From TrEMBL:
An annotated Gene Ontology molecular function: ATP binding
Coiled-coil intervals, chain numbering: none
Pfam family, any one: tRNA-synt_2
UniProt keyword Ligase present: yes
Cellular-component GO terms for this entry: cytosol
Name of the molecule in the record: EF-P lysine aminoacylase GenX
Single GO biological process annotation from the record: lysyl-tRNA aminoacylation
Domain Aminoacyl-transfer RNA synthetases class-II family profile residues, every copy: 1-298
Keywords: ATP-binding, Ligase, Nucleotide-binding
Length: 304
């Protein structure tokens, strides 16, 4: 499948790229934990670094340098994940970017990639608000503030903490009432998340209440996450600063914001990018219930 995947991207004119696995500054995602390490040079001087959680920052710098269609197929690392089930601290990721495109081009890429790997079912594309209406009986358009979503959670008996973030409130309902039902839908592309959950994505020009972001679910399993990329450097810095503050509030390690990344965003062309968990993809296509079943030596066998 690795060979087939590479051939798929090569046939579409993509260039495969290698990015550093060890970085000085990781991303600011509040709920991801990079694995720290210490490097020593020949003089014995030490340097703090991290195994990357994604090649995203480096690949966006490459877009700024003039690359237009690039993909990465390699290892990424995340700490504080379960050993087995749907997670492994070391995993294979496919990440690809298209300059001068939006997320609709990536939806087509995803569908065609699955077809090239022998997956015959058609994908259904659903706006996030459709899912909230159908499965939670809620109008998401009226739940786009933390206050409104807090009240909705209380009415459903979830009893969140008074200071919970919008994203935490969102996932209380989504993970309990919506995501489990996605297995009934077949393969689904869920698009347009609330703007409060934009992360590194662009806000929709057609409806600024929502972000141009989608996720791919197969049999209820999240496989991929994609954005029409944010190219406003000032807005990017603002969002990363907010994420950094949230990391601090959650008691997580706090990192400097990568200034080279902000400068890259300042001159980056319009683009869209998607990250897809290759091990999960193989797991689903093979009909396996545990990611350990598709790995030679998963962490559960190495460390437990």
């Amino acid at each position: 499948m690795l060979k087939q995947t590479r051939e798929f991207f090569w046939s579409k004119g993509f260039t495969e790229v290698e990015t550093p696995l060890v970085v000085r500054l990781p991303g600011q995602e509040p709920y991801l934990n990079p694995i720290p390490l210490v490097l020593h040079n020949e003089l014995g001087k030490t340097f703090a670094g991290y195994l990357h959680t994604s090649p995203e920052y480096t690949m966006k710098k490459m877009l700024t340098a003039g690359y237009e269609k690039i993909f990465f197929l390699g290892k990424t690392f995340r700490d504080c994940e379960s050993f087995g089930g749907m997670h492994n601290p070391e995993f294979t990721m496919i990440e690809w970017y298209r300059a001068h495109e939006d997320m609709s081009a990536l939806m087509q890429d995803v569908e065609q990639l699955f077809q090239s790997l022998g997956y015959a079912q058609s994908f259904e594309r659903l706006h996030m608000r459709q899912l909230w209406k159908e499965y939670a009986d809620l109008n998401l358009d009226t739940l786009l503030t933390a206050e409104a979503l807090f009240a909705a959670c209380m009415s459903k008996g979830y009893h969140p903490d008074a200071d919970e973030q919008y994203e935490d409130l969102f996932y209380r309902i989504f993970l309990n009432e919506i995501e489990p039902r996605l297995a009934e839908q077949g393969p689904v592309i869920v698009h347009h998340y609330p703007a409060q959950m934009a992360a590194l994505s662009k806000i929709s020009a057609d409806d600024p209440r929502y972000a141009e972001r989608f996720e791919v679910y197969i049999e209820g399993v999240e496989i991929a996450n994609a954005f029409t990329e944010l190219t406003n450097a000032d807005e990017q810095l603002k969002r990363l600063t907010e994420e950094r503050a949230l990391r601090q509030k959650l008691g997580k390690d706090v990192f400097e914001i990568d200034p080279e990344f902000i400068e890259a965003v300042r001159s980056m062309p319009p683009a869209a990018g998607v990250a897809l968990g290759f091990d999960r993809l193989v797991q689903v296509l093979a009909g396996c219930k545990d990611i350990d079943d598709v790995l030679v030596l998963p962490a559960s066998k190495l460390f437990l």
